[in-house]
Amino acid sequence: MTPQLLPLLMLLLAGPPAAQPAPPTCYSRMLALSREITADSQSLQATEPSEPCVRYLPRLYLDIHNYCVLAKLRDFVASPQCWKVARVDALKDKVRKLYTIMNSFCRRDLVFLLDDCNALEYPILVTTVLPDHQS
């Protein structure tokens, strides 16, 4: 076998790389979507601050471990429409999706560690991590 074919043969034998070792869980999907919504909301507030409807939208600093997050999501979806800003409609669609996932599909996977509605008004400084009970 020639030395030039060896790397090609090794690539073929290795097969395609694995995208994810395991499918996402309900919890990981909720966590990822809440982080995505928070980032999109902050980006929207930074890029469209002069739009009146964007200025009056509720701030979204989501923590899926806070019981008040469900009310926060409902309030955001019920806020007035922004017909001029397509990004607001896209954000509201994501918020609806997260609310549906949290309230229906993944309800049993949720563990609320807080019941502090004021905590959702400010950026999250520390990510909540569940303690590891293994020794």
Automatic annotation (TrEMBL):
Keywords: Signal. GO terms for biological process: positive regulation of transcription by RNA polymerase II. Residues 1-21 form the signal peptide. It comes from the Eukaryota. Transmembrane segments: none annotated. InterPro entries: CYTL1 (IPR029253). This is Cytokine-like protein 1. The lineage of its organism: Eukaryota, Metazoa, Chordata, Craniata, Vertebrata. The gene is CYTL1.
